[in-house]
Amino acid sequence: MKPPENITTIEQMEADNAMLKQNACAVCAETYDDRVKAQSPHCKFGEGGICCKNCSMGPCRITAKAPRGICGADAHAIAARNYLRSVAAGTSSHSDHAREILHVLRNASPEGNYKIRDEQKLLSLAKEWEVPTEGRDIYDIARDVADIGLMEFGKPEGTQRFVSRATPERQKVWAEQGILPRAIDREVVTAMHMTHMGNTADAEFLVRQGLRTSIANGWGGSMLGTEVTDILFGTPTVRTTEGNLGVLEKDMVNIVVHGHDPVFSEMVVTAAEVKELTDYAKTKGAKGINIVGLCCTANEVAMRHGVRMAGNFLQQENAILTGVVEMMCVDIQCIFPALPQLAECFHTKFVTSSPIARIPGATHIEFKPETAFQQAKDIVKMAVDNYQNREASKVCIPPSKKNAVVGYPTEQIIKHLDGVTNSHVDELGSYKPAIDAIKAGVLRGAVAIVGCNNPRVRPDYSHFEIMKELLQNDILIVATGCAAQVATKAGLLNYDAKYYCGAGLRRVCELVHIPPILHMGACVDISRMMLLATGIAKDWGVDTTQIPVVGCAPEWMSEKAVSIANYVVSTGLDVYLGIEPQVSGSAQMMELITEGTRKITGAGYIINTDPHELVKNILAGIEAKRTALGI
Ligand code: SF4
Ligand code: MSK
């Protein structure tokens, strides 16, 4: 059987990269692979997590001859402190993103730039938080909800409100283990305090605080970010789009939105549809304005508008190397500081918009909610004006693009999976049909594939191989972030991908009309995955740690990913990693993250840098869960 046309190969994806590398060489531009070579071999102390610079007596590096830093901290303390600091940074990133969006919700108004698009979700959150709704204006309710949400960051007592959404068993584990998160900022500050020179040197307690801080992210900041984004911009629904660099157009003004915060990208997308601006583009000789997304912003705007996706993390330079990008405008997180310099080799304008992400060489336009629409129109006009500066000799657009089906938040998944049989349908929908399919062995389980791509390994290869092999083994996949983008580029985010599926999974996909990889959104939306696993566990009548569902980050790279991995483990789900965390210089830390956390949360990491071996590990883990459940 020949693969359907929509499915590509890793070799084709790599051929596109090679073509663009030639374009880079032609303009003497440096790209990440040049810098990988310049940075290789990597520092062994950094790789092992055993370099400390937490005070100016150091930096101290641990060796056989010098097993302790000047203060006496050993490899375990140093690696654990560095690890906890990564969790704190990752938690801060997702949570600060959420806080910004909460401020936008607080100031939303019918006359303003930001309105409420999902009233139902707002009302349901208001009910959950006991905000009066009867006879009240929806914007007054929004303000009260936003105020409560903002208090989650700094309330003087109590724990995170969303913790009550977890299974009762999970809540008990968190309470008994002392890892129920208090205010989000409190957990981050405690993590930073614990890791200050002269405080905690016992690795186990640093790991415990890592779990607690991460729950403040997954069941706090990230969950708030996702909820409020849905309220403001609409809960995503299933729609079709396209992905990969072939979505850039030769004869249109191309604008790439890159980053994470939809407060910015939503407005740019809206501005690009204004007739006055599309007409203006035509006066400049272009056929129109083509907005495309990159990284997690791509996921956000694809799920809500069907905006096409140019690619994932390691494609950010490639987009500029096509020579047809009039503007790349960015907000926060995962943006290469190399981009302004690269943009200078072409006509591309590089615009930053957030005070959180200032980059030398960029044009900075500080985006403000009060003036957002006018600013977005100005930005789009600037891109249109730049169209005439495009140099035909530098244009090189790889033809590759694939159809993709996106937009499966938890609500959509439950709706679709409930279609397996109608016998258990209740008002809210139920996971029982999906559970029945798992119990019967038609589906063996589910894997959440998340995270970045990373030049430490062959980029995208691990994702691609793991996804294909899991599908063959009747494992349903949910994906977010740059992992979802790999599936898009490969053509796997599509009904055609059933070509790779085992008989059981193929039958389910055909029956309920879903692709075998369900696109759940951006990396902040891994909170949706926690609610999905929780919904399955509750309908099953067990805890999350018992269900045959796991997480997998084959090529993770960011500190956000470290925080995410911790909150997934805290939720009781094993996490399979294809990149080793930077703690290998401490045997105790390696034991703590793979086995030690199991005694606390019932889950841990399984690390294997060989994707085929990692798949074997995942399948064994899922089968062990099934056996324990007696299925
Ligand atoms: Fe060295 Fe201790 Fe200072 Fe770290 S905190 S740099 S190990 S003296
Ligand atoms: S953008 S954190 S590279 S998934 Fe969310 Fe992609 Fe990883 Fe950034």
Automatic annotation (TrEMBL):
Assigned keywords, A-Z: 4Fe-4S, Iron, Iron-sulfur, Metal-binding, Nickel, Oxidoreductase
Enzyme type, top EC level: oxidoreductase
Matching NCBIfam families: CO_DH_cata (TIGR01702)
Organism field: Leadbettera azotonutricia (strain ATCC BAA-888 / DSM 13862 / ZAS-9)
Domain of life: Bacteria
Pfam families: Prismane
SUPFAM superfamilies reported in the protein's UniProt record: Prismane protein-like
UniProt GO molecular function: 4 iron, 4 sulfur cluster binding; anaerobic carbon-monoxide dehydrogenase activity; hydroxylamine reductase activity; nickel cation binding; peroxidase activity
Binding residue positions for [4Fe-4S] cluster 1: C43, C51
UniProt record, GO biological process: generation of precursor metabolites and energy; response to hydrogen peroxide
Positions annotated to bind [4Fe-4S] cluster 2: C52, C55, C60, C71
Chain residues that bind [Ni-4Fe-4S] cluster: H260, C296, C334, C452, C482, C523
Coiled-coil features, chain-numbered ranges: none
Stored Gene3D superfamilies: 1.20.1270.30, 3.40.50.2030
Co-factor(s): [4Fe-4S] cluster
Known catalytic reactions: CO + 2 oxidized [2Fe-2S]-[ferredoxin] + H2O = 2 reduced [2Fe-2S]-[ferredoxin] + CO2 + 2 H(+)
Protein name: Carbon monoxide dehydrogenase
Enzyme Commission numbers on file: 1.2.7.4
